[in-house]
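Technical annex B. To support the medicinal chemistry partners, we prepared a structural model of the target in complex with fructose -6-phosphate, based solely on the information shown next.
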Amino acid sequence: MCGIVGYVGPQQAAPVLVEGLTRLEYRGYDSAGIAVLNPRSTAHPSRVVRAKGRVRDLEAALPARLAGTIGIGHTRWATHGEPSEANAHPHTSFDGRVHVVHNGIIDNFATLRSRLAVDGVELTSDTDTEVVAHLVARELAGQDGAGLGFEDAVRAAVAQIDGTYALAVLDTANPDRIVVARNGSPLLLGVGDGEMFVASDASAIVRHTSQVVLLDDGDFASVTPDGFRTFTADEEHTARSAVTIDLTVEELELGGHAHFMHKEIHEQPESVERMLTGRLDDRFGTAKLGGLNLDPRELRRFTRVKILGCGSAYYVGQLGASMIEDLARIPADAEPASEFRYRNPIIEPSTLYVVVSQSGETADTLFAVREVQRKGGTVVGLVNAVGSSIAREVDGGVYLHAGPEVAVASTKALTHMSIGFALLALALGRVRDLSHADGKRIIAGLRAVPGQIAQILAGEEELALAAKELAPAPSLFFIGRVRGYPVAREGAQKFKEITYRHAEAYPTSELKHGPLALISPELPTVAVIPDDDLVERNVTAAQEIRARGGAVVAITHPGVELGDAATRRIEVPRNEVELDPILLTIPTQLLGYHAAVALGEDVDRPRNLAKSVTVE
Ligand code: F6R
C-alpha cells in the first residue's frame, strides 16, 4: 500500500530513489514520483518528477540530468483520487517550498481541505496527502513571517491530522535533511557510512546498508547524512538504535525465473526445510516454539483458539484451526481480521488469539491485535516479516522464515503459515492429550514435506497443461470438503487474483444445494479429492459435475479411483491426513501461475492489488 523511500548523502539521489522504488513497487504501482533538492541551483532548488503507472514510466519521464543529493520518492496504490500524474506523490505546498510523500490514510483530510480552501490555498490533486504539504508550509511560514523550524513544523502539521501515515518531508530551505513521521504505516531508517536512507521496508535499501532503525508509531526523525535524531510529539530526543537485518540483494532478484511468483513457488522445498530446522523435538515428539513466550502450563490454560488473518492468510487460518482441533482437540476457528473489531468481539482470557500475516503490516490484522490486547486477551503471531509492526506488537510468536516474498500473490509464505500452524497444533496437542507416538508421527510428516513439495513441483509440465485448459474459461469452481475446503478457497483466490477469471470456492457438499445449476461445458471445476474418509462422496460429487458436462481437474492422492469423474488427474504424495492440505495446495499455486502466464497477464503485479495492505 504505497512505498516510500528517501536518501540524503554524497550520492546523486535520483538513481538511489528509483532503485528503491523498483524494490517497493510490490506495494503499489498506480503511479510513481520523486522530488530531489539541489540548493546549488537557484533556478531549480527542487525538482519533482511524477508519472502515472510503473516505476519504469517514471524512469522514462526523468530528465537526463537531475542533480541533487537529497530526495524522496513514492510508489502509489491509489486510495483517494484516481491513478494519475496529478495525484501522484510527492505533493508540493502552495509556495513550492515543501514536498511530501505519504503511505496511509488521512481520515480528516476533507475537513482540512475545506479549511485550506477557505484560506485561499489552491488544491491541485484529489488526494488526502496534499493537505500535509500545505500544512507544513503554513507552519514554516508562520504568521507575520515568524514560522517554526522544519522539525517543529512537521510536528505541528502532524498534530492536525488524524489517521495513519508514514511521511517523508523535504523543505527547500533546509536542504540537508528529511523529516519523517510514523503512525500506523511502516517506516524505517537505513544507516549508511556518511549517508542515510528512509524506506517503507528494508528491501528498498538493502543494496546500500543492512543497518536499520525501525521506527515506532508516534516517532518522528530528522535525518541528515551524518545520522538521525528521533523525537516524539512530547519529547525532543528518544533513543532508537540500529539493528542488523538479514536480507540479501540476491533474495530480491529473479535468479533466472520469469517471475517472482515462480521463483517463490520453487523456493518452497528449501525454505520449508530451513523453517523446520531446530523446531522439531524428536525426544518429546513436540515442536520447540520458544518465541511464543508461553510455558506448557500457560499453554494448557487455553480452552479455545481464535485465528485472525486477512485474505489468503485467513484461508490458511481455517486450515490451522482444523489442525489445532485435530491435534490438540481444542475448539478453534478462523475469522477475517478485517471484520473482527467491528463486531465488538468478546475477548476471553481463556482463548488464545493467533494472528497470521506475511507482511506483518496488514492494517486490519494489526488493529485486531490491538483490539485483543485492549480487552486483556493474549495474542500471538505467525508472522514472516521480521521486525514488522505485528511481530513487534504481539505477546509472542513464531517467525515463518519464508524469506522475502515479492510477488503480490502469496505462495511460499502461505505454505510456511500452514507449517507454522502444524507446529503450533503440535505444541498445543503435546501439552494435552496428543500421544508421544502421534507427536512423532506428525514430526515425521513435517520432515517429509520439503521433499514432497519438490516431487509436486517436478510435475510442473502437467500442471501447466491443465492450467492452459482452464485459462480460457470465464468462470470456474474450486471445491473441497472439510480440510480440503480451505485448499479450494486458496486455490480460487490465487486463480482469480492473477488471471482475472471469476473463480469461486465452494464446499463440495454444498454444490447440490444451488451452484450445480451453473455447471456446463463452459464452467470447469478444480476438485480437491484427498484419500480420506470422504473420498467416495467427493468422487460422487465430481461425477455429478461430469454428468452435467463440466470438466473436472482432480487434485488427489495416488490410488484414488476416480473412474470417469475427472477429465484430468493431478496427484500429490500422501502425508499424514492432518498435513495433507499443505501439499494439496501446491498444485493450485502452479495452476494459477500458468493460467495467468497463458493469458499474458502481469503475474507479479496483478491490477488493483498491492502486497502489503497497510490501509483499512
Ligand atoms: C493473496 C494475498 C492476500 C494476503 C492478505 C494478507 O495472494 O497475498 O490475500 O494474504 O492481504 O496479507 P498478510 O499476510 O501480509 O497479512
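Notes passed to the chemistry partners:
The CA atoms of residues 236 and 517 lie 67 Å apart.
Residues 3-251 form a domain with the Glutamine Phosphoribosylpyrophosphate, subunit 1, domain 1 fold (CATH 3.60.20.10).
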